Amino acid sequence: MKKVMSIGLIVMVLLFLAACKGDPTVPTIPTDTGNPTDPTDEYWDQNGNGIPDWQEEEITLTYATWQYTQPDMVTIDLLMIEAFAEKYPNINVEMKVVAEWYDWDTAFLGLLEANDLPDVFLIQRLGSFLPFNMLADISEMYENDPSTQHIFESVSGLGTYGGKRFAVPTFIYPTAWFVNLDLLDKASINKPGYDWTYAQMESIARSTTNLTSHEFGLSGCNFYSRVYPKVLKMQEDLVTGRTWYAFGYDGERFNFDDPVMQTGANKYSESIQQGYCKPGFSPEELEEWYADPTFVPTYGGKVAIWPEATWSAKDYFDSFTFNWDVYPGPGGVTGGNTDIGGVSSLSQHKQAAYQLLKWMSFGEDGLLKRFEIYADVGQELFQQGNNFPYPIIDYGIDGQGVNKVWEAIPYGGVAPGFVSPEFVEGLRNGAFWANKEVIGWDAVDSATGPYFVEIMNGTNTYAALKDMIQAAANAALNEAQQAMKDMIGF
Questions:
Q1: 255 is in which domain, residue-wise?
Q2: 134-143 pLDDT per residue, tens
Q3: What CATH number has the domain bearing residue 268?
Q4: Which residues of 380-409 are buried (b: 16+ CB within 10 A; e: fewer)?
Q5: Total-model pTM
Q6: Pairing of strands 216-219, 303-309
Q7: What DSSP element (H or E) covers 305?
Q8: Least packed by Cβ within 10 Å: which of 281, 290, 377, 447?
Q9: Tens-place pLDDT, residues 228-284
Q10: For residues 80 and 370, is the Cβ–Cβ distance under 8 A?
Q11: Domain contains 378
């Protein structure tokens, strides 16, 4: 459920905070006409006057996100573009209402036909926009931006196609691991460290499972086929393992024929058959065990450990009646996904649009402003839409020994694990579900899904199906990528 704050409430909060800081009218936002790609170079300053070209004329840009669907909404995006315009006074940014996420692609076709694309926007699927030439090639800007060298390897390849960059990841939305500390206490298990291993997680899951009281150690078993293979691959070969995404994808192919995929699938079957992982609950089970067919065992305190996307769980945190914390993925690899954004091919001010995209995503100044707003206004803003966004980048430690961006993240008030150093490391090594970015990912998931159902149900084994899974994945990926080549010519 999306939470929307009224304009009046946000304005009152920000005015109050501004007054506390000594400004009786508006929040203090520094104006900066300097070059965000410090130092200024020829690419950004073609006339050599020391001022980036995109800061030399009055510009109006438009920005669109599926989290902004009504003109009277006040979201983090609106506050961020206002801050951008304050920082760069020559640029006016207007929020554009487009559609909800499920109508996004259709709405953009209409905007394209009307020659009215926003300058900067989020992208549902790269493959949906590429055939219509909606996206500018931002490769040169990205390559001439020194900040991009700090982007995590786990996401740096996302947003490219055919050797060109058409999008950038905006934020990571992690699949966090929620741990019911009360069930651990009940089983006389100490709270694990945030650097927990897979073996520790499995041991806890086994020890907290009580089939008599219908308490389960683990729910969310597809971890074994999606994320766990990268854990194993990094243990086997750290360099190669770091290049993997979720589902055994290495940037070119899905490695279902790699032995680590079979190990993960075998654990998938074992965890279900031995009862310490419950993949799902039927209405009949919920009625019989908990006297309520709508009961949610994870939120209701009947599951010790479960991985779940933060945007999925966030509306229920206040209803948790047990002590809990959040962990990175066991073994130091966390799953999740990213949003991606791009610049319109029709934009008349592409360099300025790129800088707006950067401000709204991985730019250091933008990130610091975002987390300042979150900290000032409170949870209401960062629990809107896809909440708990994490940077895709690490600018490192400054001269005072402070990692300004990562230490500014205010989510620790919800659960301390959200800001643990190990949580950051789990994202740096993340195994992300890249179906928004990789042409053919969804097709591979659909083609291989029935085989994994057989494995989960115990009617077949990975060893018996491995070759068929790999063949199906290869065919689906090749077909989707060839279809894209046929449509756009490369």
A1: 173-331
A2: 999 999 999 9
A3: 3.40.190.10
A4: bbbbbbbbbbbbbbbbeeeeeeeeebbebb
A5: 0.90
A6: parallel
A7: strand 303-309
A8: 290
A9: 999 999 999 999 999 999 999 999 999 999 999 999 999 999 999 999 999 999 999
A10: yes
A11: no
